[in-house]
Amino acid sequence: MGVRIVGTGSYVPEKILTNLDLQNMVDTSDEWIKVRTGIVERHIAPPEMSSGDMASIAAKRALELAGLEGSDISVVVVATTTPDHTFPNTASAVQRNIGADNAFGFDLSAACSGMIYSLELAYSLLMQQKKYRYVLLCGAEKLSCITNWNDRNTCVLFGDGAGAVILGRCDDDDSGQIASDLHLDGNYSEILQLPAGGSRNPTSHETVDKGMHYIHMLGKETFKLAVNAMAGACRNVLSESGVNAADVKLVIPHQANKRIIEAVAQRIDVSTEQVFVNVHKYGNTSAASISICLDEAFRSGQLQKGDIVLLVAFGSGLTWGAQLLRV
Ligand code: COA
To answer: Is the pLDDT score of 174 beyond 90?
Structure first.
């Protein structure tokens, strides 16, 4: 018995914000953004659209591809840093919107590593609990609502969107998780955070006046930590499993910055052709990025049944990890 990805879906809002648009908003340039990050444009959700709305559209597309109904889903997980509300969870909005009447579910908070963490749960649940047939994992973010559009250090980096992955048990023994390596380190929590809005600093006039409801990030520090952590996690899953980097069909890294992706690829010795990149189209969509990539890779035929894929991410927490899967 194995576990296999039976469907994927994704959604990005229609509105595109280009680097040229940003040139008119803050002191930046198309050239600087492209060279330093690889980002060309990103999608921005309209005010009335939430992370849960985007996740629901992505989930419906995944259900359609899998040939399943909402009622077939046993578990709904939504990885997000921009939930619709503090409570109820965003998973309940997705459950309602897709008619997942037989599911339980919850949100998962692991910033950009959300899909890597969610996959660990999904593979474990499906392998150990026969009563769960299909698990729906969504990664969804409306980062535009926590972005300070006057801060050029951060506003050029992020975008909105959602992806969905459905996993199910299958007869094929080969499909499944080959190895995983997950980490959490709270010693660097201040380099990348949303300072206010939680129980540490509840929202007040003062927190809003100080812009504490926006993403705060020390870019250079984050960059260095991300490269080392992501390369380390990739090396760990490869050495634990005995799989050669050359046998990995596709490496799908979290899409934060093209230079981070290139530095990781170089350290683990994979070719450019093996690395999936779409950061130029969407920017950093945090928890959504890996599931959007997976959907594009499957639908374009770059990933096919039986392929080995290496997923790797790094995010606030710090959280990071890698998943080596046979899909
Ligand atoms: N346009 C033009 N100049 C900018 C700019 C922008 N949008 N943002 C920053 N700069 C300036 C800085 O002010 C600095 O100017 P100074 O030298 O006069 O002080 C200069 O560019 C270099 O800034 P620096 O922060 O050293 O650039 P960098 O090469 O580290 O690139 C990031 C900045 C943010 C792109 C990069 O650090 C990064 O991607 N970090 C990781 C971000 C990330 O992945 N976060 C999420 C993790 S999941």
So the answer is: no
Task: Please pick, among 112, 155, 234, 293, the residue that the annotation labels catalytic.
Answer: 112
Is residue 202 classed exposed, middle or buried when 0-12, 13-18 and 19+ CB atoms within 10 A define those classes?
exposed
Rounded to the nearest angstrom, the distance between the alpha carbon of 252 and the centre of ligand 1 is: 23
- pLDDT digit string, tens, across residues 180-208: 999 999 999 999 999 999 999 999 999 99
Same structural domain, 165 and 180:
no
Instruction: Indicate whether residue 32 lines ligand 1 (CB < 6 A).
Output: yes
76 in helix, strand or coil?
strand
Domain count, the chain: 2
Range of the domain at 65: 2-170
pLDDT tens track for 73-114 = 999 999 999 999 999 999 999 999 999 999 999 999 999 999
| pTM assigned to the model | 0.97
User: Between β-strands 2-11 and 160-170, what pairing exists: parallel, antiparallel or unpaired?
Assistant: antiparallel
The active-site residue out of 138, 216, 284, 293 is: 284
Same domain, 32 and 165: yes
Same domain, 152 and 236: no
Nearest residue to 4 (alpha-carbon basis) of 131, 167, 116: 167
